[in-house]
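Assemble and predict.
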Amino acid sequence: MATDSVSSPSPRPTLRERKKQRTREALIDTALNLFTQQDFDSVTLDELCDRVEVSKRTFFRTFASKEEVAMAPYEDMWKAFIDELETLPVAAECSILQVLQDAVLAAMRTMNTGDWAHRLLSCTRLAGRTPAIEAHCLYFCGVTVRAALDVLHRRFGLDPHDLRPRLALDILVAAFHRALEAWADRPQDPTVEHLATDTLAAFAAIPGSLTFTGVPPANRAG
Amino acid sequence: MATDSVSSPSPRPTLRERKKQRTREALIDTALNLFTQQDFDSVTLDELCDRVEVSKRTFFRTFASKEEVAMAPYEDMWKAFIDELETLPVAAECSILQVLQDAVLAAMRTMNTGDWAHRLLSCTRLAGRTPAIEAHCLYFCGVTVRAALDVLHRRFGLDPHDLRPRLALDILVAAFHRALEAWADRPQDPTVEHLATDTLAAFAAIPGSLTFTGVPPANRAG
DNA sequence: ACCACCTTGCCACTGAGTGGCGTTTGCTTT
DNA sequence: AAAGCAAACGCCACTCAGTGGCAAGGTGGT
């Protein structure tokens, strides 16, 4: 289920595994195409499975739901984020929020293979117009945030009742979603570096969101 | 669909409407009981509809999904929040985030009727252990945040590209969810005033979440 | 009392998701 | 290289959420 290409050197992860990965990617690719051309709800899983020549039973052994296949590229990035969070070296007086931001940036750069950026773009736009996918996405974020919270507690000794690390994570996710939104609205072909730029811009807007009054017409967002 | 008891004086909102409200509340009440005693997934809608003596068709005319009936009390509060946001008088140099916090507090106090608090408690605990409900809840929050953002733009003239108001809303929701979590863990009978206390505590933790380093063992959360 | 309309109940249907079981296919051991 | 093992797959039948259509009952207005 997880991409184990990162943590293990694995010169060749056994044929069986490769086949599994191949069907997984075929499913993702075909699903993204179908959902984009037609509509998420109007595409049936039978239709998708016919295209990929896979039984519906196999689909559900690979993905837990119809929504999951649509958000797989997005989810892969957050899994990489967890990995980064476990291994990232941290400067002593760095704020937790800063550490989290670094981990997100690092995670998205590990995804810079194949045309992950294009797939993520499809994900994002699908999530933007499909309630079921958006709901699933947000739930997944909740799970990821809890996992990340565990890592934080393990790496730094934190008070289990302190709300601040959890809030920092929620803010991180919220800001990243703003970045995705902006990135998906770009006219040009999307690249990981553009996404990094938009992400930094969203992060920069965080401090002001607590204090700004909105009465003066417009200060700068950063 | 919305509770129109707030906006209209309505001495008696016509018999037809009252009947509708009665079935709606019977469905919510019975659903909350069933989902709590048994399990959300193991309770079928046929079972629920049998208890309330209502056809499944009618259920879906009242609620859009099985998850929605479980989160109805929660959703009602956020609808009240939107109303508050439209009407709340605001001091001139008050930060937007402060306005939002006031609106949340005001909204939960308008809910202080019947045993809304108990129903909200059931909601919260259900959402905490049922993925499908949590997903629906988070999606609903997303919709509500967008609606609130519209109100903010209407009441204060905001730059449409400014990320800060949206981030402030996301932070608000995140903090409120922490408050709900703490509130649901209280041993005593839950009251709206306790919820208000926990909400204020969660709001107080927001500023620190941007800056704390986590290296010193434990500062105070507030 | 009448009519118009809103709401409900019933029926049939689609599609997601699950469990069971027999079969294929890749991996391993000798 | 053949046999044995385990993992993955395909097929079948099933449950249940959710939808559309249409007829019947209750409600509000005249």
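DSSP finds eleven helices and no strands in chain A.
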